[in-house]
Amino acid sequence: MSLFKKTWTAEEADHWTMHDFLACLFGVLAFVLVTLGVAGSMLLQTWGYVALGFAVLFTWLTFKVIDPKLRALSEAFEKKQAGFLDSVERQNRWED
Amino acid sequence: MTESAGIAVVFTPLDWLWVVLLITVMIVCGIIFYRLGKRSEADFFLAGRGLPWWLPATSVYATHTATDTPMWICGTIYKYGMRGIWFPFFTAWTAISAFVSTRIFRRSLAMSQAEWQTLRYSGLGAELLRGWLAGWQTFMNMFVLAWVSAAMGKICTYLFAWPNWVGVVAFTSICAIYVLVAGYWGVIMADFQQGVISFLVITLVSFWGISVAGGPSGIVSRLGEIGEGWRLNPFHFDGFWGLDTSAFYTADFLTLLIMATLGGIGMGNFIDWYPEAQRIQSARTVRDASYSIWAGGFVTLIRNSVWAVAILAFFVMYPAIESEAQYEMGWFRLGFEHLPAGMIGIFFAGIIAIHLSTISTHLNLGALYATRDLYHHYINPEASEDKLVKVGRLNTLLLLLGSFLLGLTMQSITSWLIFALWLQAAGIWIPSLLQVVWWRFNSWAYLSSWIANLVMSWLVVWVLPEIGVLPDLPNYLNFWMLAVLVSLVYLPVTFMTDPDDREHLIRYYVQARPLGFWGPIREEAARRGLLTEEGRA
Predict the structure, then answer these.
(1) Fewer beta carbons below 10 Å: N end or C end of chain A?
(2) Residue of B nearest to A37 (CA)
(3) Per the CB < 8 Å rule, is A80 touching B536?
(4) What is the ipTM, given to two decimal places?
């Protein structure tokens, strides 16, 4: 399966795949690096600039990997949302 | 709270103009959404579930930028140097949550985390859990309101030498106006402009403070001169592990890192999850929900780093403060003691924005649990939308009054926050993951973990050290000890009680599509053809 898979069916997007794992991994790396990068850059440290550069890279990778999948599963779910919402409301009112 | 002596800050007419102008804009911005807020319970508490990602994202950031936050971050950075940046790093749970628990929770469509319990679990255990969480969250939101208001009281005492109660009551009451009138619509719209204002003010004051301290190069060279150069190193730990409670070990760092990141798989591991759950559900799509949580966390971490460098600047200027109550005010001192006249008002208006954005969230969120989960589900399931909005407003008012009573009794901000943010969550950290990823984990197990954690966290952290049975332990040891002790309760409970109702689990699985060990449920759902587009239709 391609790392930057662009086209997803609703059913494919409903499964947990390596794209979810990679988005989490890249996301965590982006968070660690932006924490270090902003502080280091404000102190004019070389390691700060490097960390900030990698933070931007991992942020881009996160969205590149996950966005097509998120779009597909999101659109598929919204079509069913009204029915699900009705069921949740009925449960809240003890009708179901 | 230990009161600092007031300082002689001179507010010019221009400063007061900024303050009045910004407060007016904030209140008006909230109130104009009155008509939208009163339409239904979903509007009063979730803005009709229709927000684009950047609105809840700003709210995530704004909510977690409270008046006590700079005190807490200042306390940790002043005490530990740049390695203290890992304490507030727990926000990084949003990096994984955005693509795991956020997605699952958004698909569940639960209005609150308490409601999610009855969608995920079934029977009496689920209802007990929902009632417990609803009551607990109603109280916790009052508690958060109280400590944030207490921080505002401390700032006003420091700044104007006002009696503590004036700062506790005055600004929180202003915020209550638009929360009462427009509900979550008012919260989210006011949060947007408060988030922007607060980020600009934090950046302005921090850079100003850094400049006053001699600029980045001046800070670095000065730290070297006074033998404190280690403070620049975010990985300067006091060995791998040990028992010194004032040290910062690699084990502390690893614990914080694991807790923060893997915690994103679970739901309810951190007190921050609860306001985030409301933002997740207010987003218009699953994709919007994911990006709102991710972006909100990302900006919060940028803010932490900006603050951290500003506190290093403060340390360089005032390196010998021993009292925690004094040095946790460092960032405020940078602004009030060093900004020129005319800008002080902008700074104070920024502080008010920071304060209101947090207060508004917790007023509305506490009222959500009291209204949706206690009143609507248990007391009056047939209530009309109009009645629910009115009850929502009444609950908002009760929370406000309760928070004033609590806020006047708070002591040290930093100690309370470290306890509340991670020690109190230690025992339920793993169960909060298990309830998401393991079908066999049931309501009785989760309920037992909560009760065991509440008892054990107080015993291990406060009571047993106080009476000499346990020594004071470093935070990381407290965390893991609590995690193990509480597991001795919920694991046996899991296997000694029945699994949740299979039909209920299948319905939940088909809608939410959770990650992890759901094999038997997934197979049954697939056998019935419920996992295809046609089957779900």
Answers:
(1) N
(2) B305
(3) yes
(4) 0.96
